[in-house]
Backbone:
């Protein structure tokens, strides 16, 4: 067996998000978030579950950091709950919220685990949503105020900063299709929300750079490698359109100061015009230090004129799928890494990769062999991408522990740590021991 050894300082981590693990939804002065409101709305979430308690990480963070150290993590990606810091989104600060994150960061540093902070992972202060949320351009300014405060408090303690998690998902699932908070259904509004999210990103990057902090800042984008159903001209064009919409819409403004032309033309054809000030793109394209990508699966697309927006349809792939119904396609990770590095020549972190399986706790163990296989195959593709020239800096498994999977509630388990929600007991799955070995050996058997 050939050993695939990663670069010496390659960062092995896991990822979580505040609303999905913290609980304490209205404790110690925290303000309501859009996800508190959305998950309290009957019918929004599987079995009307919510994140009120989640993994109770707010109270159990010390135990959780100990488990991270037991696995040997080099880094831990987590998000800060904006309304836990600014209950109303801006103005009054909640000192108990600041103290929680200060204690968490110090615990991580004590264990030599690098904190990687996501400033915003979708839990917007409800008070700002009440003023229009991401449809209101002022929210971008409020975000930069929030970010500036967080940088002021933790900027010299934290080496990796991510402004936003997946603006595409927040904008389109939250403002176009109604599947996520705030549950709106307006396609034009989703593009406006997406633009204001990018503006918020750019303002936060400017604040970070003006602060002279010594870490790195970037953004996390969800990406799925795209393949044609056939090699027909029409299907090849469908690939271009899908790639531009789902992968590049939030990347091109940062690196090229404009939205992908192919989509812009479709919007104009559908009478969706936007008067985004050109000066916004100078802010949005403030130079970042890395691109974070979340990769889970690929898309196969075919031309479909009955789809009046993008003119395409998705085709199910032939391979095995995870509990989310997502096709397992590790080569897609290699392909998207090669494509993105070819186009933007910027350091990349895989800020999320992982799989949901119907894990069973039996005799105190969780034998999640399918997840181990999923992780092994994707880690191998990460290695091959580095071998072939990609400046890949790190890999974060989604997720450290089972948690609240948005509209699916607790029905999908992504963790390498099993959470018994009745007792809040944590049990390392076999995949945690697999990952411990990968980290110890800084590599994997081919
Ligand atoms: C296509 O998957 C997306 O890129 C994606 C998958 N995931 C995500 N984004 C989010 O960043 C996480 O909060 C989810 O818990 C996680 C698992 O669903």
Residues:
């Amino acid at each position: 067996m050939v050993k695939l050894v990663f670069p010496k300082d390659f960062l092995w981590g896991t990822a979580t998000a505040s609303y999905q693990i913290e609980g304490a939804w209205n404790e110690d002065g925290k303000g309501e978030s859009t996800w508190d409101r959305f998950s309290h709305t009957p019918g929004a979430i599987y079995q009307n579950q919510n994140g009120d308690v989640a993994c109770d990480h707010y109270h159990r963070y010390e135990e959780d950091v100990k488990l991270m150290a037991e696995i040997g993590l080099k880094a831990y990606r987590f998000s800060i709950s904006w309304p836990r810091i600014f209950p109303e989104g801006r103005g009054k600060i909640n000192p108990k919220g600041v103290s929680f994150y200060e204690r968490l960061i110090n615990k991580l540093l004590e264990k030599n685990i690098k904190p990687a902070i996501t400033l915003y992972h979708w839990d917007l202060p409800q008070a700002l949503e009440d003023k229009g949320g991401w449809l209101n351009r002022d929210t971008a300014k409020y975000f930069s105020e929030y970010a500036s405060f967080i940088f002021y408090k933790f900027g010299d303690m934290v080496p990796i900063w991510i402004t936003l998690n997946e603006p595409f998902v927040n904008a389109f699932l939250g403002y176009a299709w109604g599947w996520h908070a705030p549950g709106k259904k307006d396609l034009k509004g989703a593009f406006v929300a997406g633009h204001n999210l990018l503006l918020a990103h750019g303002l936060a990057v400017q604040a970070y750079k003006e602060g002279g902090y010594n870490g790195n800042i970037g953004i996390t984008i969800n990406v799925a490698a795209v393949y044609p159903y056939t090699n027909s001209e029409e299907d090849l064009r469908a690939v271009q359109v899908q790639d531009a919409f789902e992968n590049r819409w939030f990347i091109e403004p940062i690196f090229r100061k404009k939205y992908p032309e192919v989509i812009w033309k479709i919007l104009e054809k559908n009478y969706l015009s936007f008067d985004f000030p050109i000066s916004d793109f100078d802010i949005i394209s403030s130079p970042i230090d890395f691109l974070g990508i979340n990769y889970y699966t690929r898309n196969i697309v075919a031309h479909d004129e009955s789809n009046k927006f993008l003119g395409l349809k998705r085709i199910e792939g032939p391979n095995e799928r995870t509990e989310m119904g997502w096709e397992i396609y590790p080569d897609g990770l290699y392909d998207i890494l090669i494509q993105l590095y070819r186009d933007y020549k910027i350091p990349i972190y895989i800020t999320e990769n992982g799989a949901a399986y119907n894990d069973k706790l039996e005799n105190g163990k969780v034998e999640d062999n399918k997840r181990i296989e999923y992780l092994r195959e994707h880690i191998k593709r990460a290695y091959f991408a580095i071998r072939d020239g990609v400046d890949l800096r790190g890999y974060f498994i989604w997720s450290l522990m089972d948690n609240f999977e948005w509209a699916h509630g607790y029905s999908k388990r992504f963790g390498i740590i099993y959470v018994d929600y009745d007792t809040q007991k944590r049990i390392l799955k076999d995949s945690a021991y697999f990952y411990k070995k990968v980290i110890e050996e800084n590599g994997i058997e081919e």
